[in-house]
Amino acid sequence: MKELVQEKWKKRPLIISGPCSAETEEQVMETAVRLNNTGKVDIMRAGIWKPRTRPGSFEGIGTKGLPWLQAAKKVTGMPVAVEVATAKQVQDALHFDVDVLWIGARTTVNPFSVQEVADALRGVDVPVLIKNPINPDLELWIGAVERVAKAGIKQIGLIHRGFSSYGNTEYRNAPMWHLAIEMKRRNPEMMMINDPSHICGRRDILLDVAQKAIDLDFDGLIIESHIDPDKAWSDAKQQVTPERLAEMLDSIKWRKEDVANEEYHAALEKLRQQINHLDDELMQILGQRMKVAEKIGQYKKDNNVAILQTNRWNEILQRAFDRGDKLGLSQEFITKYFDAVHMESINHQNKILNS
Ligand code: PEP
Ligand code: MN
């Protein structure tokens, strides 16, 4: 099994799938068999201990689910992966021959927990995947990688699962692709896979996010699957059946390996994709900015205040000059850009005032 895991670790694209949570012995076995039948899944995932936001939700089946995974592995030959957050969980998972461990987003945020897991991994030879922290903080993610690496773990991979933000957005966790790209830039040798399930939180946009990740040259995907998604005990809205997973994987346009004479075009294409994604994010942020401006407009209307407030505008520009300077953006550009943004804001506020 160790050799198979090594082989899978190097395979591109690496596909990991399985239920958010192991629920029953039958569910684990049926999922494993159906995933294996697709011929497209390299490693089976299953949550055994679930870090839930609120108490009272299903908090995972616990250690008694580990033998179920062992049995599923025996029948299908698929290596298995489990999330660990404490030393005890690491020990239990290893005792039951779990092949790959992952550190969840709620653990990566906490250096105490990451250190505890890292200490438990000392002297162990097991691949570890590290999810990005819940909040958009690259340093925490890097810190977790460093702690695990210092414990002597040689095979470390990254999972991009998006970042939490306040309020309802299109995504359960905003992808903030630029952060994943920056993490890849800083760790060029490290595998990075994408977790569309936890980014989307819903089935209908999974494929779109998975395709984006592949376009951005991610090394693989981890996607939750369930034999009866609507009845899943956790994350029901985002899971798909093993068969639907296979269809999705079939419809993804996989990037070709760079062939010598195509290298230049492939590289250019990837960079253009990055530009497109960054532009998409800029537009989203601009949209949000206008919404805030509208709220201010409403406030001004209620209080009978003029729209244009020169002092405030000078303050905004000065801040932008200072920051822009550090980022290598010219004053000329900042001025043009902010003038355009300002005009658009005023138009939005005017609409509110005259409504
Ligand atoms: C999970 O993979 O089921 C999970 C809990 O993910 P995350 O840590 O990304 O929230
Ligand atoms: Mn989940």
TrEMBL record:
InterPro entries: Aldolase_TIM, Chorismate_II_sf, Class-I_DAHP_synthase, CM_dom_sf, CM_II_prokaryot, DAHP1/KDSA. The keyword Mitochondrion does not apply. PROSITE patterns: CHORISMATE_MUT_2. One of its GO terms (molecular function) is chorismate mutase activity. GO terms for biological process: chorismate metabolic process. Its EC number is 5.4.99.5. Residues 262-353 form the Chorismate mutase domain. SUPFAM superfamilies: Aldolase, Chorismate mutase II. It comes from the Bacteria. SMART domains: CM_2 (SM00830). PANTHER family: PHOSPHO-2-DEHYDRO-3-DEOXYHEPTONATE ALDOLASE, PROTEIN AROA(G). This is chorismate mutase.
